[in-house]
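U., I forgot to send this yesterday:
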Amino acid sequence: MFEALNKRLETVFKNIRGQGKLTEKNMKDSLQEIRLALLEADVNYKVVKQFIQDVQEAAVGLKVIESINPAQMIVKIVHDELVKVMGEKNEPLKMADNPPTIVMMVGLQGQGKTTTAGKLALMLKHKGHKPLLVGADVYRPAAIRQLEVVAKQAGAEFFSLGENANPIDICVMSRGEAQMRNCDVIILDTAGRLHVDAEMMGEVRQIHSAVKPTEILFVANAMQGQDAVNSAKEFHAALPLTGVILTQMDGDARGGAALSLINVTGCPIKFVGTGERIDALDAFHPRRMADQILGMGDVVSLVEKAQQVVDREQAQKFQEKIRKANWDLEDFLEQIQQVKKMGPLCDLMKKIPGFSKMIPKDMDFDEDELKYTEAIVRSMTPHERRNPKIINGSRRRRIAQGSGTTIQDINHLLKDFDKMRKMFKNFPKGPKGSGGRPHLPLA
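Result:
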């Protein structure tokens, strides 16, 4: 999402790196470049104007001007101001004092509202809640059926009165349904339109008045940039929005919406959609997002994701095997499956501090490579996985044929696996700070 902005800002910092101190001239030039970078990223021009003014004010003073490393000082100032622009801290979902908590999802059609409702239900379920997904979009064909499917994927309860019912009646009756099913959270999937109109706004206002939701979340597609910001302003004028969910934050848009929404609407971004998977919804943390924009990675999110999907007992057993240097391709296959649970490999790599700067520009993390590696190992017999050294020429030909790869691919995997095992043999307690977990070579 922020790759282009990250590269532009990195160029700015590089230009002043190595200079003895910040001067009025190079500071002015740097601010102009930062301003252009933000505008090109589709950040609202009023937000950019205030941002540049705040950075300039923060940079004024003898301590900054005579800094030993002016580039690092500018990075710190820009980072701090980015955090301020995006809200400074995470704003969690507000829960009602007396359940059920009612979350009303609003927004235009095609923004990912229905899918996001399911993702939010899964997130709440993982936190110990019992959510009820309510289909109140009676206008879009198959919208209710789509929500029912999403609810099943999330393992959440589902309720609707069908496409011929009144949306307000559906939402009102959902409260009683939630009580009967012991659900403590209700998520209302309201109807969207292709554009903001009086009829749409009238309906969501009636639903708001009838059910008194705890949260009203505006769902917007980050790929739409300033259009998403303008739509949010119109909804906020009609409804007391309490937060925003940005979808498709994994896309290749310029990312300006994330930097503009809070400032323009006054509503915090509470969650961001990071992929198509049902678990691809993350809490929005301004500081972590600023780290990513400036290429500093996001280790905290990486660790949190690992804690959610990785089998801790299995990981500890694997770590012990590494220490004793007796792990094999059976263990390796299990680790591949653990990595796949954490999402796309390219997203994981970008969360590692400094890693994005080390990746060649023409290098692409092809998820198929991970599939090939898994296919190769699965094409081996259990005996071969436990004893890779017995894999001779004829066995390699059979494995290549069974996995749809080449003998060279088999050779490459076995060579990398042997190197990795020897490398970790030199770390009795695992590499410091890594918990003894190996990096994953690809075939």
